[in-house]
Fold:
Amino acid sequence: MASNDASGPGTSTTSSPGFLRPARLVDIARLAGVSIKSVSRVLNEEPYVTDEMRAKVMAAVEELGYITDNRARVLRTNRSGYLGIIVPDIRNGFFAGLTHHLEKRLSSSGQTMLLGISDERPDKEERYLRLFRQQRIDGLVVLPAGAPSLADVAQRVPVVVLDRTHPSLRHSADHVLVHNREAAHTLTRHLVDRHRLTRIAMVTGEKTISSVRDRQLGYLDAMAESGLEVRQSAGHTTREEAAAGALELLRTIEPPFGVLATGNRMFAAVMQAANRLGLRIPRDVAVVTFDGVGDTTLPGMSATQAVLPVPTMAARALQLLAERTSDPGRAYREVVLDCDIEYGVTCGCVEPDHLPGPVTSRRHTG
Structure:
């Protein structure tokens, strides 16, 4: 009689491909030898359940790989255990650091982070807001890109706006911000006062982002005080745009001169442009930046930079969320933190052969 088995010598049979059906309460009850009601009482942590009953049910749960339905917990407690986080770009060292510190604190408290990456696009941010609402998030930390519904979401769940703000949120959510304008002013005046430079340029991102705009204003303040000509390449939204803009700007300035970069991507663009033009750092070009160490340092070339207090920002954001959760009607708060200024090789304050690491000024204490 012919066999329908196609396997032959040297082959082995395995179980059919596919996924196991998720276990149900009736499956647990059958395996544990108890009623469905008893299973429900154990899983819902109701009182007056014997240790023997709990042990039977939990052994069956473990064997079947049963996962509780989060919807039931939401209905019972009105809390999902989820916290939404939306950042512009996880590849950026600053945003990655913020995400890391938020997740670390959340995991230690038993909460789960849902992460969205907006790419600075309001439409993507809008999709994440809708998804997070569907998951019944308990709160939201957002570096806003300008989604139209964000202000409405802030009226429905606790929201903390981090690092930058948006006009629609200024008076409808708690904020944790940074003194960006003051830090940019300090860095620019450092090039003027300490290094005696009279030609200082700025390479910057999109000024519609409030933190970037504040850094631009700090530069402009310092240049006006010093009576110096403003030279800038602005509005860059990509690394490629920044590189092209920095190259075009730097080739028009006679050395020695200084450059303020408003972020680590702008810093990378300035360093790349200087290298292509054969300009020496810091003899020909003294460079200062914000968080230049993130994803763009050169060996032995520690940046002179304003360092944002990332761990403190994450801690204060979660603190404000907890306070808003416990007291939804309280007045909105705005926490503004200071930066530390690190003086390194890129402006000439540190000799690379003498001191490999930066010298930190605690002038801005946060």
Observations:
- Confidence is low (pLDDT under 50) at residues 1-13, 354-360, 362-366.
- The chain has three domains: 25-68, 80-178+311-337, 180-308+340-361.
- The chain is about 40% helix and 15% strand.
- The first strand starts at residue 82 and ends at 87.
